[in-house]
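Contributing new records

If you add data, match the layout below exactly. Sequence lines come first and carry their own label; structure lines follow with theirs. Keep one chain per record. Anything else will be rejected by the validation script.
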Amino acid sequence: MSTAERSETTRESSLDISREAIDQLAAEATKLVHEYFSKIDTKRVFPDTFAGKTNTLVDAELSLDGEPLERIIQECRTVIELSRHNGHPRFFGYVASPATPVGAYADLIASALNANITCWRSGPAGTDIEKMVVRWLGSLVEYSDDSRGLMTSGGSMANLIAILTASRRKAGTQVSSTGLWNAGTPLTLYVSEEVHMSVPKAADILGLGREYVRKVGCDGRLRIRVSELRKAIAQDVAQGFRPYCVVASAGTVATGAVDPLDEIADLAEEFDLWFHVDGAYGAPGALDPLKKDMFRGLDRADSLSLDPHKWLYVPVDAGCLLFRDDEAVRSALSSEDAAYIKTHGYSDDEAFAFWDYGIELSRRFRALKVWLTLRYYGVSKIAEAVSDDMKLAAYLGQLVDQADDFELLVPVELSICCFRYVPPDLRAKLRTADETGAAAINQQLDQLNAQIMSAVQTGGRAYISNGNVRGHFALRACITNFRTTRADIEQTIRIVRSAAESLSGV
């Protein structure tokens, strides 16, 4: 082809860059990522920063002619320094596992491809891989070897789809904006008082009404009381309400409690309710042979939410909703309104569309990082990392239990430990205080522990969050980090104690 012919068939775009420039970009970006992974444990967990500080260090003006790569990469280093480092071995704040290098580079590949996984014809390979990943995830937690489902932005979106499906299964499309069924019969949803906020929020978004979300009390391990659940359902049936779904937790985000899934499945069958399990955080705990009994009944759920970005060490965002009855989900979400998305001349497999099973139309190629992570490491190594996280949480619970200035607020079930600092003098007063006196002391302890948490977070050497356990302010450590060691756990206890003693004037 001549130069003249090539110029007519090749667009000279203002966004094209040379092979040399691409090589330089790849080398510099890879170097930056390598530096980050190799030095993450030397950084402050939370940066020494304040709102707006980034704007003073990174040029915020929009350039007309572009900036040199060297300058941009250096500013990316500044962005890294001014970020909270979820991958730090002493980050225990929330349910946020760090990304492995494999997962991070998988995201690069997915972004380079920039496939929009709406349907098979939009992303043939991506659709097939997502279907495979869904089956793998179902098998991984022993939910089903033939799971159907889809990747989502996270557990909140997965729970929303599940609640929508459950309500439509019971009432079809006859649900009004006030949550009423058939002109006057409210649909009712049953959850634990420890339920994740996304579930009542989903009912609210769907117009089903928060007032029809029944929160059932918990036992000493903060698991839903099945006897109270039965009573609540029976009472609603007797009063003419329309129960449609029960949601159980396979690892609450506050304490890691796992509800008695098998017993709840029995109730769901008895009352013809959709049984959804929120395992967004905790479902991978089933990979540990010592924990399998806790998850008995998981395989009986109609749907299950599970977030690989929470405890399978892949980058955000990577949520998932698993289910068996794909027709129930499809009938709740399928739409043939838009002519431009209709399929013509395709086989059933080639006509497959994720928009028939979810809310999003535009969807990232989320499955690639899960697929690559599972293929690279294999199930055994992933399971070992999950088990090690739980052992470290149990070790933290032991250290707390053995100390005379800490109190374990609830047994460690999975990889979350909730505790509080209790100075020995206040502990002694609590033993003899009457109800009024104990309430005053506990209020004092709530305030002190809130200050401790803030001091630890801003100190930058470790990061813990908080929870509420039976009305007490809890220091909460969630361990979903393959970099964490026993030494990190011991150091965190020392950091918390040091902050507490400083605030207490000890």
